[in-house]
Write a structure and sequence with these properties.
alpha+beta, 18 helices, binds magnesium ion, binds adenosine monophosphate, 12 strands
Amino acid sequence: MSLSIPFDNSYAQELTGLYVPWQGQDWSDPQIVVLNESLAHALGLDLDALRGPDGVGMLAGHALPEGARPLAQAYAGHQFGGFSAQLGDGRAILVGEVLDRDGARWDIHLKGSGRTPFARGGDGRAVLGPVLREYLVSEAMAALGVPTTRALAACTTGDKVLRQFGLEPGAVLARVAASHIRVGTFQFFAARGERDKLNLLLDYAIARHDPDLTGTEGAALQFLERVGRRQACLVAQWMGLGFIHGVMNTDNTTISGETIDYGPCAFMDQFDPATVFSSIDQMGRYSYGNQPAIVLWNLARLAEALLPLIDPQEDRAIRLASDVISRVGDAYQQEWEQVFARKLGLEAPDADLVEEMHRIWQDQDVDFTSFFLALPATLDGDAAPLQSLFKTPGRADAWVQRYRAAIPDPAAAKVRMQSVNPVYIPRNHLVEEALHAASFDGDLAPFRALLARVQAPFEPLAGMERYARPAPQDAAAVVTYCGT
Ligand code: AMP
Ligand code: MG
């Protein structure tokens, strides 16, 4: 069955000079490993055709369908605080855009599709483990209600790729996003002083993400604020789940407000704001507790890139942009309070209660996710499951009393909590187990079982307790490597 996709390639058509037209690489034996059928359906893609040779051709990138105008996007970025003027899609291509059943526009993008002119020293490849990690974690995030790129498919290429721990199966991730425009995309043209292209990009981004701002006065400044608010809400949601992105470089910070580029990311088990999982983050720059400050820092870099479009007078532009960043900081704080109010089942934020909760967690190795799952029982008078999460007996007693007093209607609170506090998250030890089995034993069963759980994160299932439990105490500390 042949694959026919009505691509609508606005990035290719409207942004000439902001990308390099580019094709995917030819592979020896491309095969689909996982296909996201419900996402494919929502995009109006034909499942039989996707499973056939044409579908594999598109999803692995070696034979793109007619109508696609594949390209590698140019972008720059601050990586761990240092500016790289030229990053870009080194091993990825934007295949094209599709309009879904509701008319919304989505990028279809491939990661691991071969070297591009932006590859620098890289091999242009991705390997199966990290591809499946992104698949699993992005689908978990979507199910948790967090804005994110989605995984459409994972394919193996048939080739072996050399990585830190030896040869691994080469793989390509097909993903879908509201767009792949990053803070770093603006930085690329700002750093080169290419004002026309910067303007073109801004107009395009506004038309795509904030169409109501089109043609309005002060659109650049308003756009900055919109992006800021989306990112502030996003990071507040991460914080409420214990999610650590791991590489919050400006090239991994989207304009759409979607989580992007899942590399050495992970969900924190035991609460500790200093938690870092990435092997390359020696200084803890992107630790759990630093994420709110870092997102504001990244937005300040976007503001810098937009300055000439905000106001011709630089000092005025700086003042206006600083006000926006400061408002976004306030918006983050409010959103964070809302997130934790919902997690506690409160009707309205209670900053003192949340602060005290964080205080009693200190040095107690409390499992972040389990804590919130133990709350409903305390409302029924059974605080034992919650107490058992603390090292020090009695540590939570006073807090539990305050908490119960703050909940006038336990039944309503339980309903609120149930829809925001997940039972199943992609716990690190389970992710590692699933990735290892897939990469080194060719066994996808653990991956599929874990994927099924995290796709329905709020529904406890009998017999699936293993997926809800923290790592055993003797589990090796998880460190994820950037060898995506
Ligand atoms: P990431 O860590 O995936 O966010 O990528 C950061 C930058 O490095 C981007 O410009 C990527 O395209 C590039 N990059 C990462 N891995 C590779 C690779 N294996 N080959 C070529 N470019 C890469
Ligand atoms: Mg990236």
